[in-house]
Amino acid sequence: MRLEGKHIILGITGSIAAYKAALLIRLFRKEGAEVQVIMTPAAKEFITPLTLATLSQKPVISEFFAQADGSWNSHVDLGLWADLMIVAPASASTIAKMAHGVADNMLITTYMSMKAPTMVAPAMDLDMFAHHTTQRNLKILQEDACPIIEPQSGFLASGLEGKGRMEEPEAILEHVVAFLK
Length: 181
Ligand SMILES: Cc1cc2nc3c(=O)[nH]c(=O)nc-3n(C[C@H](O)[C@H](O)[C@H](O)COP(=O)(O)O)c2cc1C
Fold this sequence. Notes:
The protein is α/β, with parallel strands linked by helices. Helix content is 40%, strand content 18%.
């Protein structure tokens, strides 16, 4: 098991590729890692917290606090717990927020509290990926020492073909294992 004892925060954003995050959790767990999922509110439209909580065997974190009882999630504790954060899939919006410190959800506040590195696996349509704002924001993240796992070219959920498909979960696992070595 190549990730034995590692603590991984998996950030999931509002992209069709969110279904691949379920496979990623299984792969990380099979390699011995503990996985804490943090979803943006938009991500919940694409895959259910129930699926992700079941696969990770931990309640999914998404909101800052629970309306019902006022209990709240500590991004600071999460930042101390993790050996790695990986945002997969990373939407254009989340990449922009990470690059500019727009801390308006749990995923970004946790990213900004991380003591360990954060990897980013972008997923979006070819035009959004090629757009100068996305490219500029990815450059900022790279300069901020966030490794970027390049998306692949191929058929996109929009029906178009081009670069923007999130890297496959098995390949992301290999990037993570190599990075943490
Ligand atoms: C069907 C559908 C698919 C989408 N797929 C993507 C995507 O792959 N990448 C992306 O950057 N945005 C995508 N979006 C737009 C995002 O969901 C939207 O920008 C959202 O605000 C992202 O929020 P988040 O980054 O906080 O999760 C999609 C929207 C819809 C309706």
